[in-house]
Amino acid sequence: MSDLIVDAGVLEDSQQALTVLKSEFDSIENRRNDTERIWGHDGLRDAMHEFASNWDHHRDELSQKIQDNGEKVATTLETWREADQKLADELERNSSRQEGPR
User: Fold this and answer.
1) CA within 13 Å, CB half, 23
2) Are 70 and 17 in contact (CB under 8 A)?
3) Which of 26, 30, 56, 78 is exposed most, by the fewest CB atoms within 10 A?
4) CA 6 to chain centroid
5) For residues 11 and 76, is the Cβ–Cβ distance under 8 A?
6) Phi-psi category of 89—alpha, beta or left, where left has phi over 0 and alpha has psi -120 to 50?
7) In angstroms, how far is CA 91 from the centroid of its own chain?
8) pTM of the predicted model as reported, rounded to 2 decimal places
9) What digits encode the pLDDT tens for the residues 72-84?
């Protein structure tokens, strides 16, 4: 039988990284308008604007998937902590029963 090892720190780091990633990803749209003036040529600027606009839909979908994954990690972390605590409590109860009264 092998041991199950869950690193809560990795789950916490993953949850935090996904939160930051979603925030950064969602703010990309705000930066689109900041870059329009650097393209110079109207055709290039229009092509870049069209490309960025087409990404709006895909960005929304990806942003939702990032959020969903972050929520799954948070649920996994919470569930693991609850299970770990229950196991610790049960181990403590069983240990005190075996020791008996002193």
Assistant:
1) 6
2) no
3) 30
4) 17
5) yes
6) alpha
7) 32
8) 0.66
9) 999 999 999 999 9
Greatest alpha-carbon span in the chain: 87
Cα–Cα dist 58/64, whole Å? 10
Residues in the chain: 102
Domain annotation covers residue 72: yes
Residue 91 lies in a domain: no
Instruction: Compute and round to an integer the Cα radius of gyration of the chain.
Output: 24
- Contact yes or no for 25/64 (Cβ under 8 A): no
**Domain hosting residue 21, numbered range:** 8-83
Report how many domains make up the chain: 1
Residue 89: its H or E element: helix 42-99
**In this structure, are residues 77 and 16 in contact, taking their beta carbons and an 8 Å threshold?**
no
Q: What is the mean pLDDT of each run of 10 residues along the chain (102 residues)?
A: 82 94 80 67 78 78 93 94 93 81 57
Identify whether 90 is part of a domain: no
